[in-house]
Amino acid sequence: MNLDYPITYIKGISVQRATLLYTELGIKNCNDLLNFFPFRYIDKTQFYQIKELQPNSSEVQIVGKITHIKSVAQKRGSRLVATFQDASGSMELVWFKGQKWIKDALKINTPYVVYGKLNHYNGSFSIPHPEMELVSEYKKKLQSKMQPVYPSTEKLSNSGVSNKLMRGYIQNLLQQVYDSIEESLSQEIIDDFKLIRKREALLNVHFPKSQEALAKAQFRLKFEELFFIQLQLVRKKLINKTKIKGFVFDNVGEHFNHFYKNKLPFELTNAQKRVLKEIRKDVGSGAQMNRLLQGDVGSGKTIVALLSMLLAIDNGFQATIMAPTEILANQHYVAVSELLKGMNISVDILTGSVKTKKRREIHTNLEDGSLHILVGTHALLEDKVQFKNLGIAIIDEQHRFGVKQRAKLWSKNTLPPHILVMTATPIPRTLAMSVYGDLDISVIDELPPGRKEVKTVHRFDSNRLSVFKFLKDEIAKGRQVYIVYPLIQESEAMDYKDLMDGYESISREFPSPKYQISIVHGKMKPADKDFEMQRFVKGETQIMVATTVIEVGVNVPNASVMIIESAERFGLSQLHQLRGRVGRGSDQSYCILLTSFKLSDDAKTRLKTMVDTADGFKIAEVDLKLRGPGNIMGTQQSGVLNLKIADIVKDSKVLVSARNTAISLLQEDPNLSKKENLPIRNTFSKMSKSSKIWGNIS
Ligand code: ADP
Ligand code: MG
User: Does residue 302's CB lie within 6 angstroms of at least one atom of ligand 1?
Assistant: First the structure.
């Protein structure tokens, strides 16, 4: 039998059942089934006597006989109850479903091995829907000591595809194909990591002989899974570097130097200098740059972006920055125009609200090359927007943009522009390796000097009055404050009400004309939102009441307090982003997390993490642990995370070795053409052919 054969080749799997297995679990061919791994194991080495059972025993295995069976009527329907005995005592076995069929199949006074979850009620024990096997059958079978439990679905179990059946299918299959399971790694890698052979690993992951054998099998399979993903990513990166030509910015010219010498408002931090060097190296290399720039809020990514754009302009190219919201785009536009004042560089902005006439003007200036820098939102991606020669595209706050949109920027040129993706959401290293493994990564891991850490505290709602008092003191010192309410899609109406109630009570507490309040939320028209934002930015209002629309990018250095209402409802990365709105000026800033008394354990962890640390990477690690990789912003679309056995969080060490192994392998043998790497090459090309390869990431 060949592993490519459909599973209908396995005894007992009808076409109908195969269809079900495909729709429910995605299992199509024998190889899929072989790589469908148990999610836990039952240790069935233990047998219990009935008198040994304890109310807190969970799953138990007992040998005994059924002495009689009866149907018991109950409120809805009936249940089938069998009295089950061994030498030490008796208990009940109970069924609610399939009663007739089970009643006919059960044999009285014949020894069974019974296994299941123990219930304890009124001093007596029962097992509902036990697994049953005649002792005579049980003895015949090759019993592995630890039994696999496979993931299942309601539909499957309702259609009679039990765990026992799945086990049988896989056992059958393994027996038939065992000798033909080919090794997929080279001897060198196997030796280096002391891995067991592939076939041995597959056998032991399904039917482990012992805990130790299971651990070895899992390690081997995790390594392999991560290795082939990394091989793919690293290879793509190498191909990008050698095959995808990029514009060469070899001229560090007049604008860059002039700006650097005369206009730079501060000395760059070492981290900024290092990143800039990395970018300069990329854009001078002749290959297209695909770089992810990670830097916490306030770490100074904008200036790095600006200097990179000046490199492009010095070499006769245009540049663009794309931001996820109009407010942010505006802010970039203002910042960039301000910094470039007095230099002979034209900057413009294109967003959804730019009027047709102005829009046309921008199109014309872009096409004839007289416009050097275009800042904007998604509006930049419209087909009508054509650059004369776009040299670099900078994408801010990357997680808001999908994969396709990034690809779209590419198609605007003969050669692809250099791409710099900036994100303030720190991504843990292991996750970045997987999701952005084909990008180069730069990190600004240092804040500009003189920043004071934002003092963060957690307060219960009942302390609201003292919090308000504190706000009044801060406002009296001339500071401004944010008060943020959650906005979660599912309960939008309720959140909106909370926001409005909150606004009203704050208006009462902070009456006009002494206090002026701005309010911004998602239901407002962009123009109104902007108007309110601007009032706050200009200092005309002291309090900004808002939903999370202010999360991204807003820069008001005079704001020194961030109050987060119902903070238990926010995710960690969101809390961190919000806190990043304050602490931008020279004054001591504060973040106050307000919550109710009722807090889940996860919420407590989130709050404690916020109070304990300001390090975005540490926060991201905790977030990853709490929520799992699939929920971290920007990773959902990445197929890289559909792992069968490895876990990016728990197996991060394996991931790092797998990546390093992939890198050194491709350095030595870029085309995998050496004889000893043939097993890798074969597996790799099979994987590439099957649909399991994720879409382009950049
Ligand atoms: P972010 O990385 O969040 O986009 P910004 O680029 O907006 O951060 O920078 C945050 C603030 O820090 C800005 O006011 C900026 O002018 C300032 N800044 C950036 N780099 C430095 C530096 N090296 N020294 C002092 N201030 C800096
Ligand atoms: Mg920014």
Answer: yes
